[in-house]
Write a structure and sequence with these properties.
Length: 257
């Protein structure tokens, strides 16, 4: 499989400088670890936030961290898309007999993000038994859907970011509100930010569909099994994201670099 060849190539190239790779891994781990420490200190002062306990909030933190880190690791090419347009690297992708999206994905795989995935796993190891959830098969399935669909949703947001770059050439920093911001704000259940924010994160940028609503099912606050499948509804966001990228691609003119 061609993608596996790209995967192996990127892994070998990043492992050429092992000390640098290890230091970057460590740095990424402690950057997100500082956020975890912030949550811990807040709960030393308050017993709960909007009715959610420390262990329940840790489930949110781990889900969003794992989902974002997976997307950032394997879809890093879209985050660097403005650079590809500016230096003409994307023009080479257009003359190759493969999908442009596939080639952008294959151009950049950032294995240094694996340390954040490891941190999410460690948080899961603590939070899963401590949360008080009775882990039946449907709860386990829901948790897996939250992470996988969340990762695909962040991929869709990266795709929108790349699509807008076709019209601006330079990246639009406001998109970080939904990518990095989605990870940061997603460390707490989205309901704490108010009803208006929750509606926006349900119907416009459907981050709440992969975090808040399935979390209610996990915790037994909602018994309707439809809440278990809300992460799948979030995948509908990929259709307009893909359509916007295709529209931008049809209007693309080389930068001439």
């Amino acid at each position: 499989m061609l993608y596996l060849k790209f995967f192996s190539m990127h892994l070998k190239s990043q492992m050429q400088y092992k000390i640098s790779f290890a230091l970057t891994l460590t740095g990424n781990f402690f950057i997100s670890f500082s956020v975890l420490i912030g949550i811990y200190f807040m709960f030393m002062r308050f017993n709960e936030v909007a009715g959610f306990s420390f262990q329940e909030v840790l489930l949110c933190f781990a889900v969003m961290l794992a989902a974002f880190s997976l997307a950032e690791c394997f879809a890093r090419g879209f985050d660097h898309f403005p650079l590809m347009l500016g230096n003409g690297e994307f023009d080479r992708a257009l003359v190759r007999p493969r999908s442009a999206i596939f080639l952008v994905l294959a151009m950049k795989i950032d294995f240094t993000r694996l340390s954040r995935i490891l941190q999410a796993i460690l948080v899961f190891i603590y939070a899963i038994p401590a949360s008080g959830v009775i882990w039946t098969w449907d709860k386990i399935f829901t948790l897996v859907l939250m992470v996988l669909c969340g990762s695909l949703l962040f991929f869709g947001l990266f795709l929108v970011y790349a699509a807008l770059t076709f019209f601006t050439v330079q990246g639009l920093e406001f998109m970080n509100i939904f990518t990095d911001g989605g990870r940061e704000f997603g460390r707490y259940p989205f309901s704490i930010y108010g009803r208006t924010a929750l509606r926006f994160l349900t119907f416009i940028i459907p981050l709440a569909l992969v975090q808040y609503y399935p979390l209610l099912y996990l915790l037994g606050r909602e018994t309707n099994p439809l809440y278990m499948f809300t992460p799948l509804l979030a995948l509908l966001f990929l259709y307009p994201a893909y359509g916007l990228f295709r529209f931008g691609l049809s209007r693309y003119k080389s930068t001439g670099s």
